[in-house]
Write a structure and sequence with these properties.
The chain has helices at about 1-5, 10-25, 30-40, 45-60, 60-75, 80-95, 95-110, 110-115, 125-130, 135-165. With about 170 residues, it is mostly helical. Helix 2 runs parallel beside helix 4, helix 3 packs antiparallel against helix 4 (about 45-60) and helix 6 crosses helix 10.
Length: about 170
């Protein structure tokens, strides 16, 4: 990715993508710096705001992550993942009502998430999904889908987060 940045240093998508790689490797500060650069180059790149929000949420900075998701939604109101991610951040803050509204909007914009959340690969996965959060079906549906997407790499991290969500 560094070669891509050297080749095209004014391309916001290159910085955004490099930020994804850095976040995947656990370099949250480096990822945030790349998302900052992407936003500086293209302030209308909703994905960069949402991705920076994810990195900030990983660091536990929920207020700043929510601000990033709100920026992404302002740019692209149809960006379902930004609504869902803001819902997670609100959920971790204890804002159940706000989380449910965001999850409902996410599922309205991306109805396939409901279908995918109904499929489980194992009994333990189904139990984890069902017990992760004791909120509305919309919250559980979104969390189950998110959990399934991240389970292969971050199973323990997700369980730790789910365990500190207010019940």
């Amino acid at each position: 990715m560094d070669k891509a940045v050297r080749f095209d240093p004014h391309n916001a998508l290159v910085y955004n993508n490099r930020g994804l790689v850095k976040r995947g490797r656990g370099d949250l500060q480096g990822a945030i710096a790349d998302y900052d650069k992407a936003i500086a180059i293209n302030p209308r790149l909703a994905e960069a705001y949402s991705n920076r929000g994810n990195a900030r949420q990983d660091r536990g900075d929920l207020e700043m992550s929510i601000a990033d998701y709100e920026s992404a939604i302002k740019i692209d109101p149809l960006f379902a993942k930004a609504h869902g991610n803001r819902g997670l951040a609100r959920l971790f803050q204890g804002d159940k009502a706000g989380a449910e509204m965001d999850f409902a909007e996410c599922l309205r914009l991306e109805p396939k998430l409901k279908t995918l959340a109904g499929r489980t690969n194992s009994e333990s996965e189904a139990q984890a999904c069902g017990q992760a959060i004791r909120f509305s079906n919309q919250v559980t549906t979104y969390l189950c889908q998110l959990w399934r997407l991240t389970a292969s790499k971050k199973r323990n991290s997700f369980r730790a987060r789910a365990s500190c969500v207010p019940r």
